[in-house]
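User: structure tokens for this one?
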Amino acid sequence: MNIPAEEEKPLYSQRPEWADVVPLEQYENVTPLAPIFYTDEYKDATNYFRGIVKSGEMSPRVLELTENVIRQNPGHYSAWQYRYKTLMALKSPLDDELQLMDELAIKHLKTYQVWHHRRLLVQQTRNPGPELEFIANSLQVDMKNYHTWSYRQWILAYFNDDALWSHELDFVENMLESDVRNNSAWHHRFFVAFQSGVRNGDEDRDAIVRRELAFVKERIAIAPNNASAWNYLRGVLDHAKIPYSELQAFVLPYSLPQLPLGIPPEVVDLENPLPSKDSQLPCVAAVEFMADIHEAAGGGDLVKATELWKSLANEHDTIRKRYWEYRIAESLKTESGGDG
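Assistant:
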């Protein structure tokens, strides 16, 4: 039974139909040192909830009671668990329950129990199709909510249906069009491209790597100081075991205070797109990337890496000054160890 949150009803202790239930106080025979001051409505509902759990009752009124408790405290995992057991025992129509979850999930997006309950329901209905649209709508409320993205990945991986996967890259691309700095969307794209198996049409993994490198380069060109895109770039290179040095030609212009002289602004290099007009340069992530390239090269390049770390510590990324000083110190240890 779906009870509107605003509807006021008498306490369970005042309802004749609940007279057969013995309520169980939370602190029965106990005097807590620091009691929590619950509302009378919440104490009343949870007292009766503990009473029906003790008796083992599973009935339609238990569904009404657990909904009441959940609406007052959506994180009450015992109420969720007992509600699910009651739904299964009564063979209740789960589509109705999912409609209730549509409302509660939007209201309580950051509550884990809401999403876990929904997952249990969909495992029973075996109908994941409508879930993707529901998730997309939920993300319009909070585009970076961890639970929503996690649930989407679970739907895709658990059912692993080609129809579910077919438009997922388009979906995540649209999310990044809305906010290119959405780290959750970048994480989801990596999941789709590299962490969810190989589907029809994606057998050429080298082609997938090239596609993703081109995609992320274009987004870096649009917003150079976007840490999420630079992290994605590193993730693709690490996954494909491609040395960072292979992207030096792309990264270098982003690490400089201004574009190198001699490059006409109308020149477009599709392989290595330049920073967009009015970009704030140098880009901290690009300077760090170049330092990592020089550090990996070793030898005389360690001096170049050290100079870049110094520029980060003293000018471009002073908030992490201690970190860059640490990198310099560790590099010097490596260099002196090699000389020895």
